């Protein structure tokens, strides 16, 4: 049966604030003015971790790029889980395609069970690439799978984000059904009642990990998106620096990226005041099945992968309409003036 990974839809501003590059940094868009540029740069510098062997393709070219000089790029976002202290697998795999000229972002989620070819390991699940060879192998695998050049990576450690949720005071989630799961091998114990409720860090993490229902990985992807929106809504209700700063500091501890701090600062300035209509999600046609080894896999056919790769590259390189760009710049200047008033 064919399954759809997501709907082509517009996501509101809070998703921009929390997702990918701006998962912690976007919350600082307002906070930069409140507690200073130096603090922002310290956080960005602490997350900076170039890949070995010169794989940080754009850091040298754009180390000191200004916001209006940034070119479009693809970011591989990996949500990793290192609970057992061993090799971390990527439970979340997403491509964020950023077009600074359009001031738009395209999000593409790939199910962790996607059947892929991993260099030196044969055919297996997508999330195994991270366990076998870390970020470099995960990056190479996604590049070969979609036929695109991944310019940057960003990893988020789930365990570190649990602490950030506790600092935030929990997050409100409408849990659609009771969630119960126990795995004695790694100590996972999920027990969440149904209904609208305030989840602490542990239960919030269990909520985004859970996939023991009919939707499996597709349900987890949907819940992760709901969780992201809920975190942003919760975080943006706090206007006091004393509440926002600890959350951002805690969340940033679990984030690593090869995007240079100066580029992060330029991106934040570029996307200041961006509207929800600037964030899109890519629809993917896929099929779930049980392999000969008895494991669940997700198949994305070659024609669909080619379509996705072409669409992402076209979005990445698209240039804006001059008149529309001038209108957006005028609106942004008005917003910046209002924010500084």
Automatic annotation (TrEMBL):
Secretion signal, residue range per the UniProt entry:
none
Give the source's domain of life in one word.
Answer: Bacteria
Region entry Disordered: which residue ranges?
317-341
What is the protein's given name?
Answer: Cell envelope-related transcriptional attenuator domain-containing protein
User: Compositional bias (Polar residues) at which positions?
Assistant: 326-341
| NCBIfam families according to UniProt | lytR_cpsA_psr
The residue ranges of the Cell envelope-related transcriptional attenuator domain are 89-235
Q: Which family does it belong to?
A: Belongs to the LytR/CpsA/Psr (LCP) family.
> Which source organism does the UniProt entry give?
Desulfuribacillus alkaliarsenatis
InterPro entries linked: LytR/CpsA/Psr_CW_biosynth, LytR_CpsA_psr
């Amino acid at each position: 049966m064919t399954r759809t990974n997501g709907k082509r839809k517009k996501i509101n501003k809070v998703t921009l604030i929390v997702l990918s590059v701006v998962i912690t940094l976007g919350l600082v868009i307002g906070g930069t003015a409140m507690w200073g540029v130096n603090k922002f740069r310290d956080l960005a510098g602490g997350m900076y971790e170039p890949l070995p062997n010169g794989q940080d393709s754009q850091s040298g070219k754009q180390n000191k790029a200004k916001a209006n000089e940034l070119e479009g790029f693809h970011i591989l976002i990996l949500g990793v889980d290192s609970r057992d202290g061993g090799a971390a697998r990527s439970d979340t795999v997403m491509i964020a395609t950023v077009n600074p000229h359009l001031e738009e972002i395209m999000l593409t989620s790939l199910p962790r069970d996607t059947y892929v070819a991993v260099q030196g390991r044969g055919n297996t699940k997508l999330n195994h690439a991270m366990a076998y060879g870390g970020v470099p192998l995960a990056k190479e695998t996604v590049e070969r799978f979609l036929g695109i050049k991944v310019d940057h990576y960003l990893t988020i450690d789930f365990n570190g984000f649990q602490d950030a949720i506790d600092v935030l005071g929990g997050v409100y989630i409408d849990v659609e059904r009771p969630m119960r799961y126990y795995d004695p091998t790694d100590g996972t114990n999920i027990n969440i009642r149904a209904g609208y409720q305030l989840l602490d860090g542990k239960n919030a993490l269990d909520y985004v990990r859970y996939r023991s229902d009919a939707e499996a990985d597709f349900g987890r992807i949907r819940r992760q998106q709901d969780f992201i929106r809920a975190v942003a809504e919760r975080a943006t209700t706090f206007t006091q620096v004393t509440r926002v700063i600890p959350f951002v500091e805690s969340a940033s501890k679990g984030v690593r990226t090869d995007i240079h701090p100066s580029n992060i600062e330029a991106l934040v300035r570029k996307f200041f005041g961006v509207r929800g209509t600037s964030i899109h999600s890519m629809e993917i046609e896929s099929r779930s099945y049980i392999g000969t080894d008895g494991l669940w896999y997700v198949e994305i056919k070659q024609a669909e992968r080619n379509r996705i790769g072409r669409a992402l590259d076209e979005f990445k390189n698209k240039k804006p309409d001059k008149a529309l760009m001038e209108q957006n710049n005028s609106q942004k200047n008005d917003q910046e003036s209002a924010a500084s008033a």
